[in-house]
Amino acid sequence: MAEAFFYRPSRHPRDLLRRARRRLSVLVKGVVAVALIALATTLAIVAVPRILGYSALVVRGSSMGDAAPLGSVVIGRSVSPADVGVGDVILIRAEANGQALPPVLHRVVSLEHLDGELVVGTKGDANASADPERYRLDRETISPLFVVPFVGYLVGFAATPAGWVLFSAIPGSVICALWIRSIWAPRPRRASVGERVAARG
Fold first, then answer.
1. Which residues pair with 114 in a beta bridge?
2. CA 95 to CA 14: how far, in whole Å?
3. What residue spans of the chain are helical by DSSP H?
4. Sign, CA torsion 108/112/118/120
5. Which one, of 94, 106, 102, lies nearest residue 65 by Cα?
6. 87-116 pLDDT, tens per residue?
7. Helices (H) and strands (E) in the chain, counts
């Protein structure tokens, strides 16, 4: 039985180039869309709570375990010392030699009133022992409302030069290029009435 062979003419190089350009355009637009969505999500999680009077904190340590994992963002509210109780998670702002230390998010394990001020003992949920120092709460502090996992990594990366390039410079450049192209690109010529009649005939 004879086998049938079908001849498929090779595509013209211009057609291949046109298809490659379309695919590249789709890829670039997809990357820009992902970057813009990531940027918008980051801004929404960090900025919107502050506009509403809350705080957004990036967790940079693992001492709180699953309660506030490393790389998460904590959305918190301000609480007065009188409203702090044992078991609450609060933000500790300590000083050493007159210098502010990085803030720490730990759980209150003890309370004591000394000279009219509240003194708390704290501990990280993942730590084996309580913090060696106790802290005086003489002002409002932050207590978490909810935790958004992993977004802190995105916030931290966005603050780096590489993150600025990925989330701001590249999408901005591509959007400007597409806008300029839409202005200067030649528009397809509309067929005249005579050409349309001739095509029908």
1. 117
2. 68
3. 13-51, 151-158, 161-164, 170-184, 193-200
4. negative
5. 106
6. 999 999 887 777 888 889 999 999 998 888
7. 5, 9
pTM confidence score? 0.63
pLDDT digits (tens, 9 = 90+) for 40-85: 777 777 777 778 888 888 898 999 999 999 999 999 999 999 899 9
What tokens were used for 83?
């409203």
85 vs 121: CA distance, rounded Å = 11
* Least confident interval from 100-109, 119-128, 185-194: 185-194
Rounded CA separation 93/99 (Å): 11
Beta carbons of 65 and 124 less than 8 angstroms apart: yes
Q: In whole angstroms, what is the distance from residue 74 CA to residue 72 CA?
A: 7
Identify any residues that bridge with 106 across adjacent strands, giving them in sequence order: 90
